[in-house]
Structures are given as C-alpha cells and as structure tokens.
C-alpha cells in the first residue's frame, strides 16, 4: 500500500485533535487512514474549476433572534453531570503540572 | 405484548375502546421487549419506571380519539437527549450522562402522549454502519442473529423489526436510518434537511444530520413524521416551510408519476438479488401506471469520498466539546489540564470515532484544506446539480437502499473502507439535503430483507409516502416478520 499519510503526520494530527496513540496504535491507524485516503484519489478525475463549493443545504439564511440571556435554573442537574465538583464549581487539575515544580 | 403485524391505528382503536389501558399496554410492551433483549440487544436503557408513570398520566387524561399517537409506545435512539434519562450516544465518553433537557423531537412526541420505553443502541456517536462500534453492546438482526442490524440506528431498527415497538426515532447522516431499515425489513425515512429540528440531537455532522422515524409500515411512518416536523427556534437550520399532513394524500397512488431509475445504482458492486428486487419493483410501479425510465446521476460515485472528508471534518469540530471537564468520562490521575483533555479523549472515544476525528482534522489542516475539504464541497455541488437535473423531469428516483443485504457480525470490522462503501447509495441524499425513504422490497436467497430507496425533491416527502404506500399495498414484503421473533415468514 502506498503511503498516503506518514506516521509522523498521523501523530501530528492526533496531537491537534487532543488524542494520543500508543506505539501499537500508530502504525494501525496510519495504515487504515492511508487506505481510506485512497478514496480521495478519484477526485483527480473531476474538474471543479468553475464550481462553487456547497457548505450547507439549509433554506434558512441568517436567522436572527433577540440576544437575551435566559436562566434555565438547572445548576444542580448540570453539576450532577460534572466529574468533580467543589463548592458548587467544577474542579479541574491545574494548568501547570505542579508535581514538576 | 408483541407488536408484530400490528399497526398504530389498530392499537389506537384498542386504547380508545378501553380493551387495554395505556398502562397495561406499556407494561406488556416492556415485558416483551425485555424478553427479546437477550436475543437482540436493541436497547441501552429501558425506562420502565418513567414509561409506566407516563402511561398512567395518559390514562388519567383519557386517550384522545383524534390523536392516533396517544398512549403509543416508542423507542428513541440514544443520541437524542432525554431529560434525566441516561443518554450515551453509544460512547464510553457519555457513559453516565443525564441530560437536563429533552430534544425537540422527544418533547414533541411526549406532548402527543407517546410513551418512550427506552433508548436504543447505536454506533458510537452514530459513526458506523453496523452498530458494532457501540461501546455498550452488540445488537443482532432479528431476521438472523448472526447478522448485523445495520447502523448507525441499528437498535431502533431491530426494536421495530422484533416487534418491541411500532415506531422508533433514528438519525441519518449518511444513511443511518435507511440502511438499518433496509437490513431489518422495515420502513425508514430521512426527511429533507431542515424538516425536523436537530436541537437535542447529539451532533455528528451538522450539515447532514436529520432525525427521522423507523416503522413497520409506510402509513405509520407518515404519522410519526407529522408529529416531529416543523420549525424550531432552537435550531437555526430548521425550515419555516409549511408542514403538510403527510397522511392526507398518501392513498392517491402513482398513476402518471414519473420515476427515474439511475443506471449507476444497479451496476458494479450491487448484489444480484438486490438488483433483481429493484427491477421487479420498477415493474410494479409500471403496472400501477407510473412511468419508470433510466436516468443518470454521474457524480454520485464520488459521494462516498466527498462524504468521508466533509462529515469527519464537521465531526472533528463537533466532538471537540468532549473534553472530560463538564460532563461525561474523565480520565483518572491526570497531572495537568492538557493531560486531562488528552487522556479523557483517548480513553473515552473508540477507534472509529478517533479515525474520523483524525481524518477530519487532517482534511481541515492548513496544507490540505483546498485539496480535500474544498474539493469535496465542490463535488457536493456537482452531486446536487445531478439531482436537480433529474428532478426537472421526474417526481421520484428509485434505487436499492444498500448494495447488499445485511452482512455478518464481525465480518467488516477490520476494514473501515468496505464498511464505508455500504453507504454509497444513501450518502448522496444527505449531500443534497433531499428526503429519502427505504421500504421493504424483497428478500435475498438466504432470507434477508432487501430495501428500496425512494428519493424526492426538497420538502416533497409527500411523493415518497405516496409511492411507498402504493408499493406496500401491492406487495406483501412488509407483512413478513422474523420467524425467530415469533412471526411467520
């Protein structure tokens, strides 16, 4: 199979998407993505030089609404879904790794 | 109570006459669904308690004789938000997620008095065509337990085919309602983009996603679409076009209708049994007075490639919200915030979701945007133009729904590309935003259902229902039921 995407590229794309791949997963995903990208080679047959791209197919253009805040009073249910809560706030680890200070 | 060979009007009549109460019906239906679960595995959650409470309320209020849906049990795909009821989208990422709202379609159905008995299994975040990418369980095809039910709305389709419920909602991004409907011998409609609100549908690819009904027959399907259609202020892409009563002209037949049969849909890669079933269906329409002629959709063959750029691109953006912070899965022992994001996402998402996120991220990245994303969007325009041209002269297009009947569980797992080709005939409708429906049109030699797809102009679901109904009245495929579920084939 031709290498349409390299391991390095897959690693880079994974990091952009906030994913990490193990040593074992990297060649597996690289092969599969490379294989899938073979599909896109058929694009070369199609001349689209005068064709406008389509990004959506809705018949609604620029729907506007009043910009007003709305309180749903759902704080408790929302916090019940949070993995870690302290003092009615969602808790996360620190941005900087404290263990390396 | 098994609902094989029943329809909504019959059940409604029993409820109105007081032969059965909504509570008794719900209790019986849940009992039957639970029995079927061991064999089929259609549900992620069965909401017994809430369902019976809802049914009691309907009984107290009294069954509305003018509302066919009052007290009717339904099932919902697990990517539709249900207030306080577990909603996982088939992902470990949302293994414990209880939404604070109902999706608009869920609210519309419950306002009409339908009883949701449970949330159905699906491919993770609706990415897949066999329901095997679900992190929750494997769902089996009621017609043959070694076969997949299709996907991604495989649980909804299997629940209807097995007689658990008469109707279920699914979602369709590249065929996820029509393909499982076809694999299970039932009716599945993907409405026009914008016909149905997407608010509260967990987003996969926002320019394609539509919610739609899966039912045992065409009339019931139209009833359900009546119930869920219409503009919603919460979904800026939902259309303000008037919603007709889809059942009103459903019996008016196909005499004089012009139906196109695209030659590209009957060529290479199409199973012989499938091809024969569709050619026979064309003859049925001719006998009923429709004109069926060969047409051409020359750019449809690039649909799969363009789809697997645009849909993953939209998905990579939509799925950024899953970061382990506010809800859902959070990885243990992350030392800092970055690690929390990366570990939560890497542990929470399955392989198919990762593949698509990476494919999308790559297609949108600086060096690839023009060659991939923009080019795919231009091809999307060409596909739309092909449809426009045919619909200038024809009312409908008829095709097979899928190239083959249901394949075996585990058969296509290691080969994403083969799996993707299953969507080749359904993707173009999502590309163009036009409506499409699969109706039962035959059986393969080994007894698996075959589906016919009917496509129409934007917002012309009425023509599809008319033609679907006429076909159903003149064939008996929809009356067959899986023997292993207690039906007779």
Strand order across the largest sheet of chain A: 1-2
How helical, in percent, are the residues of chain A?
25-40%
3D shape of chain B? globular
Level-2 CATH architecture of chain B? Alpha-Beta Complex
Class based on secondary structure composition and strand pairing of chain A:
mainly alpha
**How many helices of chain B does DSSP assign?**
15
In oligomeric terms, what are we looking at?
Answer: heterodimer
Q: How would a textbook summarize the main sheet of chain B?
A: 11 strands, mixed
End-to-end Cα distance of chain A: 47 Å
Q: Output the helix-strand order of chain A.
A: HHHEE
Separation of the first and last Cα atoms of chain B: 19 Å
The share of residues in helices of chain B is 25-40%
* Average predicted local confidence, pLDDT of chain A: 90
The largest sheet of chain A is: 2 strands, antiparallel
Note the overall shape of chain A. Answer: flat
The total count of strands of chain A amounts to 2
Spatial ordering of strands, largest sheet of chain B: 1-3-2-4-6-5-10-11-9-7-8
What is the compact description of this entry?
Helix content of chain A is 30%, strand content 4%. With 101 residues, chain A is mainly alpha-helical. Chain A has a two-stranded antiparallel ribbon with strand order 1-2.
């Amino acid at each position: 199979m031709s290498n349409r995407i390299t391991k390095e590229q897959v690693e880079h794309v994974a990091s952009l998407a906030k994913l990490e791949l193990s040593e074992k997963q990297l060649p597996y995903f690289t092969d599969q993505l490379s294989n899938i990208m073979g599909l896109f080679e058929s694009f070369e047959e199609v001349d689209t030089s005068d064709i406008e791209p389509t990004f959506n197919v809705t018949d609604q253009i620029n729907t506007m609404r009043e910009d007003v805040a709305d309180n749903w009073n759902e704080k408790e249910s929302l916090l019940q879904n949070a993995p870690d809560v302290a003092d009615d706030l969602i808790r996360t680890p620190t941005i900087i790794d404290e263990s390396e200070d | 109570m098994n609902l094989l060979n029943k329809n909504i009007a019959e059940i409604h009549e029993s409820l109105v006459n007081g032969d059965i109460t909504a509570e008794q019906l719900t209790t019986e239906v849940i009992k039957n669904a639970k029995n079927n679960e061991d064999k089929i595995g259609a549900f992620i959650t069965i909401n017994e308690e809430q369902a019976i409470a809802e049914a009691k309320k309907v009984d107290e209020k009294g069954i509305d004789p003018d509302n066919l849906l009052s007290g009717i049990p339904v099932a919902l795909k697990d990517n539709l938000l249900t207030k306080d009821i577990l909603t996982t989208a088939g992902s470990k990422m949302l293994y414990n997620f209880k939404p604070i709202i109902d999706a608009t379609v869920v609210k519309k159905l419950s306002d009409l008095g339908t009883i949701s008995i449970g949330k159905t299994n699906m491919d993770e975040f609706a990415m897949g065509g066999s329901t095997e990418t679900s992190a929750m369980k494997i769902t089996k095809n009621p017609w043959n337990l070694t076969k997949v039910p299709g996907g991604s709305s495989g649980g909804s389709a299997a629940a209807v085919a097995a007689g658990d419920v008469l109707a279920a909602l699914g979602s369709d991004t590249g065929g996820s309602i029509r393909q499982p409907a076809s694999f299970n011998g039932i009716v599945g409609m993907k409405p026009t983009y914008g016909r149905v609100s997407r608010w509260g549908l967990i987003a996969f690819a926002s320019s394609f996603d539509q919610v739609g009904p899966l039912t045992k027959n065409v009339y019931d399907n139209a009833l359900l679409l009546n119930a869920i259609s219409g503009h919603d202020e919460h979904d800026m892409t939902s259309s303000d076009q008037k919603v007709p009563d889809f059942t009103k002209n459903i019996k008016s037949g196909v005499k004089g209708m012009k139906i196109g049969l695209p030659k590209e849909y009957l060529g290479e890669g199409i199973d012989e049994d499938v091809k024969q079933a569709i050619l026979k269906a064309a003859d049925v329409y001719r006998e009923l007075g429709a004109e069926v002629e060969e047409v051409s959709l020359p750019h449809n063959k690039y649909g799969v490639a363009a789809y697997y750029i645009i849909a993953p691109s939209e998905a990579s953006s939509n799925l950024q919200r899953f970061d382990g912070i506010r809800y859902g899965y959070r990885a243990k022992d992350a030392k800092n915030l970055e690690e929390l994001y990366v570990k939560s996402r890497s542990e929470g998402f399955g392989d198919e979701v990762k593949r698509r996120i990476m494919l999308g991220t790559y297609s949108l990245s600086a060096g690839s945007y023009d060659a991939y994303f923009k080019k795919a969007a231009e091809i999307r325009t060409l596909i739309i133009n092909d449809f426009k041209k045919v619909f200038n002269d024809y009312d409908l297009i008829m095709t097979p729904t899928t190239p083959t009947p249901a394949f075996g569980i585990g058969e296509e797992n290691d080969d994403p590309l083969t799996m993707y080709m299953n969507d080749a005939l359904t993707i173009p409708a999502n590309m163009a935003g036009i409506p499409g429906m699969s109706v039962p049109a035959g059986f393969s030699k080994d007894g698996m259902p075959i589906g016919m797809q009917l496509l129409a102009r934007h917002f012309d679901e009425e023509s599809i229902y008319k033609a679907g109904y006429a076909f159903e009245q003149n064939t008996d495929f929809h009356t067959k039921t899986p023997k292993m579920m207690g039906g007779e084939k």
